[in-house]
Each structure stands twice: as C-alpha cells, then as structure tokens.
Amino acid sequence: MHTTYYKINHVNKEMNRIVQAGQMIRDGGLVAFPTETVYGLGANGLDESSVQKIFMAKGRPSDNPLILHIAHLEDVNPLVKMLPEKALQLAERFWPGPLTLIFKRSELVPETVSGGLSTVAIRMPDHPVALALIEASGVPLAAPSANRSGRPSPTTAQHVLQDLEGRIDYVLDGGPTGLGLESTVLDLTVDVPTILRPGAISREDLLDILNDVAVDEPSSQQKPKAPGMKYTHYAPQAPVFIMDETGEAFRSKLNALVDDFHDKGQKVGVLVTHEDAHRLNGDVIKVIGSKYHLASVAANLFKMLREFDETSVDIILAQAVPEEGWGIAIMNRLIKAAGGKKL
Ligand code: TXA
Ligand code: MG
Fold this sequence. Notes:
By secondary structure, the protein is an alpha/beta fold. It contains nine helices and 15 strands.
C-alpha cells in the first residue's frame, strides 16, 4: 500500500487535502493525523471492518479498545446510553482538549471499537487538523496513537512513517504535537469517577467539577480497567532502567554504573534532566528538559526514547522526575517504557 504524505500548514489553505483524507475515511481507509497530545491513526469509528484495519496496521491486541474522536459536543449523544450532567460539565470545561471520557456505549458503537466492553471512550481533540478531518469525514474517528503496538507514541509525522509507512493510506503532517503525552482517561461509569490513565488534565483539574476522583492503580493480580495499560508500552529497543536519585547521589551512582557496563563491553544511553546533566559519563547523553518545567520533559519523552534506537546503546539509564503535576503522567509512561525496572 502506498502511504500519501501531506504537510498541512494551514487548514484553510489545504482544505482540499483534508477533504480528500476525509473521503478516504468514508471509503474505509486509514489516515494518521496530529492532535494536541500525540498523532492518532483514524478510521471510520462506526464501521466494524474499517476499525479492524487499525488493529491490523498497528499489530494491536483486539481486546484493547479505541477512543472515538468527535468535533462537536452534540456528537456524543448518539454514541452513549446516557450523558450524565457531570460529563456535560467536564466536556464544556475541557473539550476540545486532552481528556477522554468513558460512557456506557449505545448500539451504534461497533463491538470492535470497545474491545468487547459495554463502554466507549470519547474525546474532542484540540487541534485544527484533527477537527477539520473529523468534520470532513462526517463520522466519529476511532483513533489510537499512530505507532506500532508497543512502541513509543508518535509526536511527529516522521515517527508515524517510521512505524506505519506502507501500512496506512494517508499521513497528515501538522508538525510536532504540543503536549507529547496521551490524554487523561476518566471512567464515568463507576460510582467514583476514576482516572485510568494520567495525562495533562490532572486530578486537581477534575476536582473543580467533580466531588471525588479516584486513581486506578493497576496491580499485577487485578485486571486493569483500561485494557491498554496491561501491555508493554513505549519501549525503545534497548532496555530502560529508572534511577530515582538527583544531584551528587545521582552523578556518582550513574558514573559507577556506566563503568560497570563499560567493563562488560556495553554502551550506555542516559536520559537526564537539565539540572543534573553535567559531569556524567555515558556514551549517548540526552537532556530531556528541566525538572522545573515538566511540560518540556513531556514533550520530549517519546521522541528521545525513539532517538535511542538510532544509536548503538545497549542500555538506557533514565532519571525519574518528581511525581507531581505533569510528573505523574511522565512517570506513568517512563515506568511502562522501563517495564518497571530500576537501578
Ligand atoms: O491522546 C490520546 O488519547 C491519543 C490521541 C490519538 O487521541 N489516543 C490514544 O489512544 O492514546 P490509545 O488507543 O493509544 O489509548 C487509549 C487508551 C488505552 O489504554 C485503552 O485501553 C483505553 O484508552 N480505553 C479505550 N476505551 C476504553 C474503554 N471503553 N474502557 C476503558 N479503557 C479504554
Ligand atoms: Mg497508544
């Protein structure tokens, strides 16, 4: 399959290309597009066989449900059994934006979208290209992140091509995504609304509207509520190990570890915050951003994990960031990329 690449600098000037991509969606094709979080891989979310192509292209397990992307608030109604008042308030406050809401699904939502669950995830992305594509398609877009299953999510159109060129019909390039980590997923079908995946919209943000918000901490015994959270994720080729230290403790421990790996003939990649990036040994050192400006760390994380694949490092040592604000979502992804491994 040939993958058509279009750079979209201005939605209005390039509307003919977006209309073409929308037609491809209606014809059952796959179109990758930018959102404010990461690139998505879209298909007609109301058509079973179109949605199945997403799972094929990504190599995604079929029990991992997809998010439906809409462009107008009223588009929620036909997709859900009921729209709770609190959901409406959340949508009015945070949409378009990086918040995915889980509802009881209506009959209109194909089984494949919800991975066999009785619920459906919906969000309105905050990106002009995404919104224009949804409008041009005239249907909700089922869209996971546009990476091969298990790989870091794509934050540029080039990342999408690395993973999916020849497997999808179109890539719309809207430049690098702003936030860099996927949306917050909030389950509204339980007594206490529950965050299943942390993202840019924090628990504190949600508490402006909700009386209580729980955070799902999937343990190894329990079945995770967001099926996607149980799979290996975001992983570069070299194994990642997290280090919790900062300052001098970090430096001396890291340099000793690097010496040990060098003795074994192994090359070491280091992912470190700006504050601790000096006087470090290591073969490839990447500065991920400042721990005082975690938005920069979020925006760089997936890109830098991918960049290590272009080096010959055998192992990646990644420094943790404080688990507050954005740091909660960043550490959630980093821990998955490391498969929980620490040094
Ligand atoms: O920012 C985002 O959310 C991006 C952009 C493209 O919109 N999309 C994204 O989709 O991250 P995906 O498929 O990579 O992740 C969706 C997550 C998975 O962990 C999935 O298991 C969970 O949401 N999810 C989807 N539908 C669900 C449902 N009905 N119940 C529970 N979890 C659900
Ligand atoms: Mg994903």
